[in-house]
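In response to the reviewer comment on reproducibility (Comment 2.3), we provide here a single inverse folding case reported in full, input and output, so that an independent group could reproduce the run without further information from us. The structure tokens appear first.
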């Protein structure tokens, strides 16, 4: 209830003008909006709880799966070399589905089609650990979205979803993260919403979570019906968000409040 009152007081329930996208020179990582204590937790790998999932992902990387007994390492060898920079350019165009696929979706696809192993749930610790381990290989590298022209209509669809007013509160992602970044909501600073650290450890969750989990939470927060995990709308939104974050550094696994 307090969250709803805060939103209503800050934004009102009447339609506002279209948000202006953040200019490249003004783009800031969510890291810059955190407290010094949370920044220190993320920066120190011995204190960053997300590194527990990275370590587990390293173990899973070399663990045989499925009827063929293949591991990720069987095809991709040393992840520090083969996966370096990969997360920084996802989502990419998938030739099989003829649409974008995100990193978690690719890991699921490889596991099911290449390893003939059982499917992993989107929020399972195993899938998040593998995604965190692969993402960690791009830590500190600049976001460099794919320039494949086939992605453009999906990226524009993600942009449209980002700007679309939804739910009973009639708020969009842009209402907060473009128009009101740096302001406070419920005692917390509103960041710009760049997806540079996923999967990340959220103190509110007390666990690691995916971007799709965060987007679902935002949809519930504005009293809208969330999409199911794996919905194409989430991937399109991520595709736009990564273009929006072009040049910012990858932070996986990030820590957020």
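Designed residues, in position order:
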């Amino acid at each position: 209830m307090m969250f709803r009152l805060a939103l209503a007081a800050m934004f009102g329930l009447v339609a506002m003008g279209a948000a202006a996208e953040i200019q490249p020179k003004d783009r800031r990582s969510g890291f810059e909006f955190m407290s010094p204590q949370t920044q220190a937790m993320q920066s120190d790998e011995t204190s960053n709880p997300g590194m527990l999932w990275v370590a587990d992902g390293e173990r899973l990387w070399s663990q045989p799966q499925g009827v063929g007994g293949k591991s990720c390492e069987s095809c991709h060898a040393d992840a520090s070399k083969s996966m370096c920079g990969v997360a920084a350019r996802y989502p990419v165009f998938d030739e099989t589905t003829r649409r974008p696929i995100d990193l978690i979706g690719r890991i699921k696809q490889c596991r099911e089609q290449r390893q003939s192993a059982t499917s992993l749930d989107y929020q399972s610790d195993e899938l998040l650990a593998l995604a965190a381990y692969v993402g960690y290989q791009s830590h500190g590298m600049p976001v460099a979205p794919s320039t494949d022209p086939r992605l453009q209509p999906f990226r524009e669809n993600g942009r449209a979803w980002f700007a679309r007013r939804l739910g009973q509160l009639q708020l969009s992602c842009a209402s907060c993260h473009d128009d009101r970044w740096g302001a406070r909501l419920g005692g917390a600073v509103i960041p710009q919403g760049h997806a540079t650290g996923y999967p990340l450890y959220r103190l509110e969750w007390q666990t690691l979570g995916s971007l799709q989990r965060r987007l679902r939470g935002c949809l519930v927060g504005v009293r809208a019906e969330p999409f199911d995990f794996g919905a194409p709308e989430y991937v399109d939104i991520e595709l736009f968000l990564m273009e929006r974050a072009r040049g910012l550094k990858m932070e996986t696994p990030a820590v957020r409040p």
